[in-house]
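User: What would this chain look like folded?
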Amino acid sequence: MSQLSPERWAAALSFTGYLGTVVKNADLWSAFHRTARLPEGFAERAREIPGRWKLLVLAEDWCGDAVHVVPLLARLSEEVPSIEVRVVGRDANPDLMNAHLTGTARAIPVVIVYDEALEEVGWWGPRPRDLQAWFEGEGRAMEKGERYKRIRQWMARDRGRSTLHEVLTIMEGAVAPNARTDSSPGALTC
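Assistant: Here's the prediction, encoded as structure tokens.
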């Protein structure tokens, strides 16, 4: 766990600012944000977590997993004022990426959760645990095109529930250690 400098946080882009830099899949990024809806109960759950939270997301515009995750987190921050989301590029921040590797993979997106003092309390990524388990087993044996088709289908069915649950669990655990212990980072490259 580490501390992030206020200057580095301030230099990170808001989601809207990040959208302005997206070159690859720009229409897809915008469409996912426009249609992103928090599943029932998640905004309320997030509002119940005391304190203010900063989520720093490592992403790249070419990453399909990031397209599913980052707009949803942006929507969470729009609906829950105590949560702020900023985005930085993975390749432009090798120190952050290397401190949050999934095994040896530079897998994204990575969501680093900071408290009000910019102390890191945990991190999530690059995919929900159940999806990552599938990928590491059955998914690895599939042809790449079919594998990513299945991943997109899983994400569409899940509608962000697993990602939000796992990220909020990190925050809840920082407030009340051992309150929830069912979240851990996944592992895969984008």
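Confidence is low (pLDDT under 50) at residues 180-190. If you want, I can go into more detail on any region.
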